[in-house]
Structures are given as C-alpha cells and as structure tokens.
Amino acid sequence: MAQNLVTTSKNMYGTPGGLIDMPTAEMAHDGELSSTVSHFGGTSKTTLTFQITPRLTGSFRYSALNEYRPGRGGPNPYPNGTYYDRSFDLRYQLLTEGQYRPGVAVGLRDFIGTGLYGSEYVVATKSIGDRLRLTGGVGWGRLGSFNSFATTGTRPTGVIGSGGLPTTDRWFRGPVAGFGGISYQATDRLSFKAEYSSDAYLEERGGGQDPGSNMFQRKSPWNFGLDYQVSRSVNVGAYYLYGSEVGLSVTVALDPKSSPVPGGADTAPLPVAMRPRFSASDLGWKTQPGAEDSLRAQVAETLAGEGLILEGIRLEGTRAHVLLRNTRYDVEAQAVGRAARVLSRTLPPSVETFTIGQTFNGMPTGAVTMTRSDVERLENAPATDMFERVTFGGDAGAWAGMAPEGGSYPRFEWSLGPYAKLSVFDPDNPVKADIGARLSADYHVAPGWVLSGSVSAKMVGNLDDPPSGRSGAGPGTLPKVRSNARLYSMGNDPRIDHLTLARYGRLGEDWYSRVTFGYLEQMYAGISGEVLWKPVDSKLALGAELNYVAQRDFDQLFGVQNYTVATGHVSAYYDFGGGYHGQMDMGRYLAGDWGATVALDREFDNGWRVGAYVTKTNVSSAAFGEGSFDKGIRITVPLSWATGTATRRKNDIVIQSLTRDGGARLNVDGRLYEAVRDAHKPQMAKTWGKFWR
Q1: Which of 616, 610, 623, 605 has the alpha carbon at shortest distance from 663?
Q2: Fewer Cβ atoms within 10 Å of its own Cβ: the N or the C terminal residue of the chain?
C-alpha cells in the first residue's frame, strides 16, 4: 500500500492518475496546484488542477479542437478553424486504500460547461507492492460510449448551448461501459502504463452529430505510454493512443506549502537583550531631561533597520505602547516578533509590558500585548509557548490622541514600473494582453488620510481587438457595465487608472470604516463607503459597502458618461479553520441586478491562497449570455514564497471564463477585511511560528 494512492502523474485530462486517458482513484499530494498541457488527435488541453483536500480534486480545463464541428455540416464555423471549450471536473475519493481493499473514487467530468467532455465514473485502484497499480472502473457519458454493457436510463445528447450550468439531468445516466489499466513504476523517475478506454470519441471522429468531423481515426481501445519525472515539479509523458495517434503531455506542479527556498533567506533578527538583575525597578530615566526624546529616536532608528516604521509611541514607567507600520513582512507575527526584540534592546529596564499595534494606511488594526520577562525567557523556546502568554486586542482607545511620530506625516511614496493586463478564455481569441508602463503614487496626508493615483500608458497589446459573434456581449438586455472593457484599452495615450482620496478610521473597539472618493477604478468614478465589524479574537466578520458611481469615458481621463448606478453589498466572512475561508456578499451589482456571491478559499500559512467564487443574480441565463452566470478561480501567490525573502508583494490571479455584465462588482482599492484580519488573533495564530524568525 503506497501512501494511500498518492501520485505525481497526471493523465491527458490533467487530473491525478497513473493512466493515460482514463481516470483512476489516485490523488495528488494535498494542496498541490498543477498545470498540464496535453495534445493528441487535433485536440490540445490546458488544465489547472488543485488538490482541494486530501480526498477532493478540482480541475478547470480549456480545450482547443482543430476542425471540430459540433452538430454542423459544411465548413468549420469557428475563426482559425478551432473550437475552444471550457470544462470543470470534481473527483472525490470515497474509500482510501486498505490492505485488501482498493481505493475508490467517484468523479464528474465537465459537469459545468457545454458537456462536450461530459462523463461520470466510479473507479477503483489497488497497489500491489511498491511499484504496480491496477485500476478498473465504470463510466457514463463519454466514458460509457464504447462497448457498453448496461444502461441506467436515457441520457440527453448534444452539446449544451451556452454552458455554465450543472448538467444534473445527465449525471450517471445512459449507457455504462467498463475501463481499466495498469501502471508500473520502473524507477524513481520512469513509469510505464497501459489502459483499455471506454471513450469512443464519437464527436471527434465523425460518429456523432456531425458526420463531417474527422479529427482522427480510432482504430483500437488500447493506449500505451510512459511518464518521466524530470524534476520535483516537472513531469512529461509520451503515449500511443487508439491505434493511430501519438500524444504528449507536460505537467508543472507546485506545492504551496513548501517554499523553493527552504528555511528562507531573511537576515537573522536582533537577539533579545537580557536586563541586568534587579534593574527592572529603576525608574530614574523618567526624571532625566530629554531622555524620552532620545529613547523615541533610538526606537525609531532600530525599528527602521528591521523594515518597521514607528508611527507613534507612548512611554510610561513600566509600559510602552508602540504603533508600527510594517513595510517588509507579509506575516504580521514576524513583524511583531522583530519589534519585540527591538524594544528589549532599546527601552529602559523598568518597561515590563509591551503593547505592539499595527496600522493600515494610518488606521490602527490590532495589537499584541506581552511581558518583557516572557520575551527574555522564551526566546529559544517554541513559538507556541509565547503564543500562550500574549493577549490580542483591538485597542481603539489606546491609540486615540497619540501624536504621529515625526516624519511619518505627511509622507510621499511613488513607484514606476511595467504592467501587464491579461484576458483569457475568449471563445475566439484565447489569450489577449496589453503591456505598458505605470507610474503610481500615494500621498499620506495624515493618519488615515491617503491621496492615491496611478497613470499608465500601453506600449503593445491586443485587448482592444473587436469581439466576434461568439465572444460578444450577448443579447444586450443589460447595461454594458463590463463587456465594453476593450474600449478602455483602445489607443496608446496615457490614462488615469485611478485618482482617489480615502479616509480610514475606527468607529469603536470592533468597528472600522473607509470612505473613498474620486476615480475609483478603470471604468468607474464616484464615492464608496464601507464599515466592518471584526472583533480581534473572532473568526466571523460582518461588513457593508455602499457606492454611487458613474461610468468613466473610454479615454480614462476626467470625463464620465451618463450611466450612473447605486451599488453595494452586505458581507459575511468566516474562517472555518484548517485553512478554509468563506465569504458571502449579497446586494446590488453594477448592472442593477440583485443577487449574491459565494466564495471559498483554501489559505496556506505562507500566504498562498487558491479558491473559487460563484455569483448568481436575478439576471436569467439567456440575458447573461455564454456561461449563464459569473464564476471564476482566484489564486494569490506571495512573492516571499518564491524568493525566500520577506516582502509584502504578492500576485493576485483571477481566472474568469468570460467577462459579462451580470454579477459585475466595483473594484475599489483598500477594502477593509483583508487588511484588518491580518492583525487579529485567528489569522496570526496560523503564522505564529514566525514570531521568532
């Protein structure tokens, strides 16, 4: 029994498995994120797969079929002769492998989409020794299309028009056929495999609705191949399929839990300074002229060396309140730990209690209180020992009236660099992009007040290419609130990405607020207000946002069009534990439609996040257009994971099947929840292991 059927191999559909075109009951390593590109018989598939839990796998696939004609005769109706298709898969391992029991999995392939690859299966896999695995299963849909031996009712046929809806009327219905295979791990890197396929490939080989399709000849149900593990992250495969075709695949896999730089490359922190014995009762420094000013300067200078900016400090005889701006560490626990070390080296021995607060755009977000004695005593103990001794607080009142540290405000920050905008999965042009330069600046007027702006100029790109019929905006029954995005990319003249004045503040112990006014994003200008309730030790947060906006002119300068809308949402956020986080937003969207967005993310301690969202409003599927409703995948990649060096920079990737007008939400920088939660107990508990780093 080999690690409960864990595998690094992927099949032609990009899902974990030791076979070629058929599924198995094997799973990838928990949390693995992989991308597979495969090709055979005129079809190329690009699949993104995530091991959501140890037993649940999800996949999103984008396929390109050359000379495919779904249900049509005559010439190929698609630009460049290629049909593009999107599909989603889910698979769950019902039974893990035992000494005599095989692992068993049930799967849905293309269960939300056009149904081109629609199929369901139940499959069992058993290890024999360390190198051999046997698989057998039964399938429906495409996996029941060759040499079927039974039926479970009538299955609707044909490709679904606009796709995007669960094909529940087809699941586990229709002819049933068997499939199976064997895989042998010859060496640590090389494996061989053979399988019997139950997919007749009716659509691609001319046996389906369109007798004109003839993408390849299926001469045999037997497939043979080999996989080679090039490195920890790269796997390649070569196959001989269906007695007539050669297939190839390449997989790149990442483990978000493991950094490419083990242990990190940060500089070592300052050691904790131990106080001389019997010095804790010496308060003589309080009576020395200029002593407090000197201490403030010393604390600020030493913190700056650690990438921490002193925003404010209040010193008492035995207690210090220190308010920080973290410019370096993407893990707040690490920032607090470094600050505690600095305070142990710079403050007088009588200061026994440290309260270290964090800020976001000058607004206090949370604080950690600890004793200096614990810092001294537990420096070399496990971080969990320190966690049990600290307390977390919102401390809204503790910072009230604290004067900003000299030089903190006003403050000007700017950056100049390249940018890239990417659009994928257009049915007629799968990849479009713009590349240019962007100048950004922030002027922090006073604590909580930020004037922000950004100007960009496109150098090259094709985001402004006109859409064809299939990728157009649909019937046009909704206001064009997002589907005209290409018009904002026309030309190479400089344009204002955003120009805003924002005010952040505390309304009470557990309450936070934001008001943003100006040119809020690429397409909309107006005013946005938000309030958030988030107790410092709670996994639950509630928020509300209200916006009144006008659509901007296409040149993205100072003019606006005559479309205005009031939009807003009430939101609930909840940390389920185990790295899973949920969010629900209910309200009115930019097109005036009402509905809700539900999102679920898996979050890793190092900042990685992989999740998905679904938005359903009172817009019908027909009015929405292709895709039926808005949905997508979102991935956050922290730069510190790749470099091993602490940085707050990260890349946010959103994969949407199409850009439509239904369910479209305003994009506003500086929304409160993500900024506030990082400084609160539930989130800091996950990353407290870096407190002493």
Answers
A1: 616
A2: N
Letter for the amino acid at 404? Answer: P
Please give the pLDDT value at position 70.
59
Q: Residues in the chain with pLDDT < 50? A: 1-2, 72-75, 207-212, 471-475
Contact at 8 Å (CB) between 249 and 237? yes
**What predicted TM-score, i.e. pTM, was given to this entire model?**
0.90
Count CB-CB contacts under 10 A for residue 468.
Answer: 13
pLDDT tens sequence across 381-432 = 999 999 999 999 877 667 777 888 878 899 999 999 998 888 776 666 677 8
pLDDT at 476 (0 to 100): 56
Residue 474 is predicted with a pLDDT of 47
**What's the 3-state SS for 27-53?**
ECCCCCEEEEEEEECCEEEEEEEEEEE
Encode burial over 52-89: b for 16+ CB neighbours within 10 A, e otherwise: bbebebbbbbbbbbeebbbeeeeebebeeebbbbbbbb
| Nearest residue to 574 (alpha-carbon basis) of 535, 519, 607 | 535
Positive or negative, the CA dihedral 77, 81, 83, 84 is negative
**Quick check: helix, strand or coil at residue 281?**
coil
Residue 690 DSSP class: G
Determine how many CB atoms are found less than 10 A away from the CB of residue 579: 17
Structural element, H or E, at residue 353: strand 353-360
Q: Is 436 left (phi over 0), alpha (psi -120 to 50) or beta?
A: beta
CB atoms within 10 A of CB 479: 17
Taking a C-beta distance cutoff of 8 angstroms, is the pair 216, 42 a contact? Answer: yes
Residue with tokens 């497939």: 223
Read off the tokens for 137.
């299963």
Inter-CA distances, 10 with 28, 229, 374, 402, Å: 9, 11, 50, 58
* Whole-number pLDDT of residue 74: 45
Q: Which residues pair with 571 in a beta bridge?
A: 543, 585
Distances (CA, A) of 151 to 116, 138, 178, 297, 574: 20, 11, 12, 80, 44
Pairing of strands 43-53, 82-95: unpaired
Direct distance between the N- and C-terminal alpha carbons of the chain, in angstroms, rounded to an integer: 39
Q: Which residues, in sequence order, are CB contacts of 6 under 8 Å at separation 6+?
A: 26, 27, 28, 29
